[in-house]
Design brief:
Number of helices: 10
Radius of gyration: 17 Å
Mean pLDDT: 97
Order of helices and strands: HHHEHHEHEEEHHEHEH
Family: Belongs to the transketolase family.
Strand content: 5-15%
Protein name: Transketolase
Organism: Collinsella aerofaciens
GO molecular function: magnesium ion binding; transketolase activity
Distance between the termini: 14 Å
EC number: 2.2.1.1
CATH class: Alpha Beta
Number of strands: 7
Low-confidence stretches: none
CATH architecture: 3-Layer(aba) Sandwich
């Protein structure tokens, strides 16, 4: 797909995020909106997946290690055709297959149940090891938060991945600079992330704008071309991207818009879509 086509898809994904979180009256819109472009690129351009066969053996795997950003993953999966977009309005409802954190047993297209921060990357490393062991060609992608990278388990997994030379693994850090309690630099600063991953024997791509499809495309091409070591993409993103009053606002980490805010957000995204 062209960058312009991807922008249109990502805009629809953002509508799905806002719709789901508003319907649930809870959830995490900020990080979901910020990572929407990266997840859109993964599912519509980068990864080998098939909505008609979500469990096909040779599919590429995606692990949303920052599992609270499930509204973003669900919106992408719905847009890609894994399940009806109408299901997004059941987010976090009793009996829905779209719970507050991803559940691989209930939701088509979800490869790993996540939510406990730091654990998703370990699961992704295990998937990459399995592919190497069995001679499979699929690649594994894991999306982490920068706040999540304060967890020690992240670095245990990184150490193992680097030592095992898992060049079929691509870790993306959604570096928006904000976490639930405030700026990451004030809570427990994990920087410099790039140098840390290099120390753990990763090839590192520093993505200056993780909301720009041209740069996203180049970053994943570099990751795919890298042999002999895993890749970490440190992606500078904007939390709440696409909704003016949510952009770069820590308060929108984990709350839902009210009816008036929902209407404003959807109007902004509709207008943005008409301009594309």
């Amino acid at each position: 797909m062209s960058d312009e086509e991807l922008k249109k898809v990502a805009n629809e994904v953002r509508k799905g995020i806002v719709t789901g979180v508003h319907a649930a009256k809870s959830g995490h819109p900020g990080g979901s909106l910020g990572a929407a472009d990266i997840m859109t690129y993964l599912y519509f351009e980068e990864m080998n997946v098939d909505p008609a066969d979500p469990r096909k053996a040779d599919r590429d795997r995606f692990v949303l290690s920052k599992g609270h950003c499930a509204p973003g993953l669900y919106a992408v999966l719905a847009e890609r055709g894994f399940f009806p977009k109408e299901d997004l309005e059941t987010l976090r409802h009793i009996g829905s297959h779209l719970q507050g954190h991803p559940n691989m047993n209930d939701t088509p297209g979800v490869d790993m149940s996540t939510g406990s921060l730091g654990q998703g990357i370990s699961a992704a490393v295990g998937m990459a090891v399995a592919a190497k062991h069995w001679g499979d060609t699929y690649r594994t992608y894991a999306l982490l938060g920068d706040g999540e990278s304060e967890e020690g388990q992240v670095w245990e997994a990184a150490m193992f991945a680097g030592n095992q030379q898992l060049d079929n693994l691509c870790v993306i850090v959604d570096h928006n600079g904000l976490q639930i309690d405030g700026p990451v630099e004030e809570v427990n600063d994990p920087m410099p992330l790039a140098d840390k991953f290099r120390a753990f024997k990763f090839h590192v791509v520093e993505l200056a704008d993780g909301n720009d499809f041209d740069q996203i495309r180049a970053a994943f091409a570099e990751a795919r071309a890298t042999k002999g070591q895993p890749t970490a993409i440190i992606a500078e993103t904007m939390k709440g991207k696409g909704v003016s009053f949510m952009e770069n606002q820590v308060g929108w980490h984990g709350k839902a818009p009210n009816d008036e805010q929902f209407e404003q957000a959807m109007a902004e995204l509709t207008a943005a879509g008409e301009e594309l």
